[in-house]
């Protein structure tokens, strides 16, 4: 009888533990689409690195991993941290002229900006999820999606063009 009670207590603990761990949807990589003229030097989602530098008007990423909860809940958000910088290296003077190189390196360093935003995760109820894609938009705006469709697919939920016009001034 003691063995039976111990077994039932253990089963109860195991069930309680399972109920406390949220079910997970399919996971995947952390990707990004950069709609701006700035390079994304690095970025992260909830502290998890997106890996690659992403040039202006390009896609990239590939960090591992993002796993959305099995059920979307109203108010779900993720924190995106990123650094922008000069995306055009046409002005790179090479290493032959030290003064020109140092001036260029200073310009690159001064152009770097750190950003952070907490953004809503759109409702993915009834849809398969595949990691997360961060869309960097002009004026330091960010959107995220968990769609399995690729950016060029007509069913992809973000419709902004890759080369978005940037306003002369951003609303703050």
UniProtKB/TrEMBL annotation:
Signal peptide: 1-25
Alphabetical UniProt keywords: Signal
Superkingdom of this protein's organism: Bacteria
Pfam families: DUF3304
Keyword Signal: yes
Protein name, per record: DUF3304 domain-containing protein
The organism of origin for this protein: Tenebrionibacter intestinalis
